[in-house]
Design brief:
Blueprint lengths: L6 H4 L3 E12 L38 H13 L3 E2 L6 E4 L9 E4 L6 E10 L2 E14 L3 E5 L11 E5 L6 E7 L9 H19 L11 E11 L9 E6 L2 H20 L7 E6 L4 E7 L9 E2 L10 H8 L6 H12 L3 H9 L3 H9 L4 H19 L10 H12 L5 H12 L5 H8 L7 H14 L1 H8 L6 H11 L6 H12 L1
Parallel strand pairs: 11-12
Antiparallel strand pairs: 1-9, 1-10, 2-5, 3-4, 3-14, 5-6, 6-9, 7-8, 10-11, 12-13
Helix pairs in contact: 3-4, 8-9, 8-10, 10-11, 11-12, 13-15, 15-16
């Protein structure tokens, strides 16, 4: 078993340094250098052609829409946009890229020298962007017959080239220092910020579970007071916000144990394991010179005019920080209440639920409490739960119409999450509607009053608060399917 040390312990001796590389699949209709479709989930090897298969004699042509998206991403990240840049060939063995190199950018990225600010627990952290460059995705290898889905222990491997050539933007940070104990949370907040920003730009569906947004998390530790960066590891293809935080936290505890023991951290890639939150070795990490970059001879340089760049700047959505401030004002939330929405990763979901007809308070209530609890129990992100903002708004609509109460609404949500259909269908199928039959309620109220003469006497003597005990018993008798407010009215009408 790999040795680790307590998280709080390592913070007394080491400063964490992060480097985050986020890969974003663009939502263009065609691939980066050919006309093949980019639709997710197609039958294996049906969305390929000689160009993306790297067949001899085939020539690439750059996707203009991808260049436009790259520029808009760079502008949104406060980057400078290159007046002239080129594509390059990045060479090493790609089992899932038939031409055995990746067309990318090296020393001439299209966007560079940017920054974003992220907020964690009321503190703002600036993350500097070194570059955002264009490249193409590789295919997907499927290792069959093993227990882990990895090549070790597999009986054979299959390769699907549909993803090969899909446009990617890789966003690379400069070393992130100064976060201390909050380093894992800052990383998570940064990736969440990028996800929300890219979704607002409309350049990607940013579905981490489908791989259209992936994070490579570089982590190193250096002794407090030192200015010499430690040896880093790179945990590859982390595909959820929760996993970004867990992977970085684990790597910090693992590396600290190695350093405490007088050994050296090995520079390598590592794999993250969702099941237990650990990482394991991948391959020795190459340096840039090992990739033997050289300019791509089959593609013309890219030289976006300043007029075009400014036209694209005008298409940018409202900056995230301004957007959050406006929403908080519009919704009338306190800093604490609004902060709970942001910290839980529910801002976009709450906003969409409000747009679907719910009040801000109701939308916040469901996403930050009930649904956040269910996501935590399932070990998934909020937006991975099988329920949509429109469905949450529909649940609240049933509450507002008096058809269910909050307790029954939780059962409705449970049914929607279980795939039982829309909220109204779940109410009908499970028989969850609030009982509105005055006769049935009257019988239940009378029985409870008769069974609790001492409590009834207190209410008659003016102690109205005692009605709560009777209301609870009536609700129990009605299996929760009564309007508590109506029950209170009936009890007080009979006893006061």
């Amino acid at each position: 078993m790999t040795e680790t040390i307590p998280y709080d312990d390592l913070l007394t001796r080491y400063e964490p340094v992060l480097g985050l590389e986020v890969h974003v699949e663009l939502n263009t209709n065609s691939k980066m250098f050919c006309g093949c479709p980019t639709t997710f989930g197609g039958d294996p090897n049906t969305q390929v052609c000689p160009v993306c298969l790297g067949l001899p004699g085939s020539l690439p042509v750059i996707n203009g829409k991808a260049v436009e998206s790259a520029i808009r991403i760079g502008l949104a990240l406060n980057c400078r946009i290159a007046q002239w840049c080129r594509m390059a060939r990045k060479n090493y063995f790609y089992p899932d890229m038939t031409k055995n190199f990746q067309t990318s950018q090296y020393d001439e990225p299209i966007a560079f020298d940017g920054w974003v600010d992220v907020e964690v627990d009321g503190e703002t952290y600036r993350v500097e962007i070194e570059r955002a460059h264009m490249e193409e995705d590789a295919g997907k290898a499927l290792h069959m017959g093993g227990a882990t889905g990895r090549i070790h222990g597999a009986d054979y491997s299959l390769i699907d080239y549909n993803r090969a050539g899909v446009p990617l933007i890789e966003i690379v940070t400069r070393p992130v220092r100064g976060a201390g104990a909050k380093a894992p949370e800052v990383a998570r907040a940064y990736v969440a910020h990028l996800r929300d920003l890219l979704r607002a730009l409309g350049v990607s569906d940013v579905r981490m579970e489908q791989g259209s947004l992936r994070c490579d998390a570089n982590v190193s530790l250096m002794p407090i007071g030192s200015d010499v960066l430690g040896t880093r590891t790179e945990t590859k293809n982390v595909n959820s916000l929760r996993s970004v935080e867990r992977a970085i936290r684990y790597e910090m505890t693992r590396q600290a144990a190695i350093l405490d023991g007088g050994a050296r951290v090995k520079q390598e890639t590592r794999h993250f394991h969702e099941s237990d939150g650990t990482t394991s070795p991948g391959r020795s990490k190459e340096e840039a010179e090992d990739y033997r970059y050289f300019a791509e001879p089959d593609l013309m340089p890219i030289a976006p005019s300043r007029e075009w760049v400014e036209e694209l700047r005008a298409t940018l959505p409202e900056p995230p920080a301004e957007h959050r401030r406006r929403l908080q004002t519009d919704w009338g939330f306190s800093d604490i209440d609004f902060g709970s929405i942001v910290s839980s990763g529910a801002l976009g979901l709450v906003e969409a639920t409000v747009a679907a007809g719910a009040t801000p308070a109701a939308a916040r209530k469901w996403w930050v409490t009930e649904l956040a609890r269910r996501a935590n129990e399932a070990g998934v992100e909020l937006d991975e739960l099988p329920i949509t903002p429109a469905q949450v708004a529909a649940v609240q609509g049933l509450v507002d119409a008096g058809k269910v109460n909050d307790k029954l609404a939780r059962q409705v949500i449970e049914g929607v999450l279980a795939g039982e259909g829309e909220p109204a269908a779940v109410v009908a199928a499970r028989g969850l509607a609030v009982v509105s039959d005055e006769g049935a309620l009257t019988v239940a109220v009378d029985e409870v009053i008769a069974a609790n003469p001492d409590v009834a006497a207190k209410i008659r003597d003016g102690k109205v608060a005692a009605a709560g005990a009777l209301i609870g018993q009536v609700m129990k008798a009605m299996k929760g399917q009564a309007d508590a407010g109506k029950v209170r009215e009936m009890i007080l009408a009979k006893l006061t």
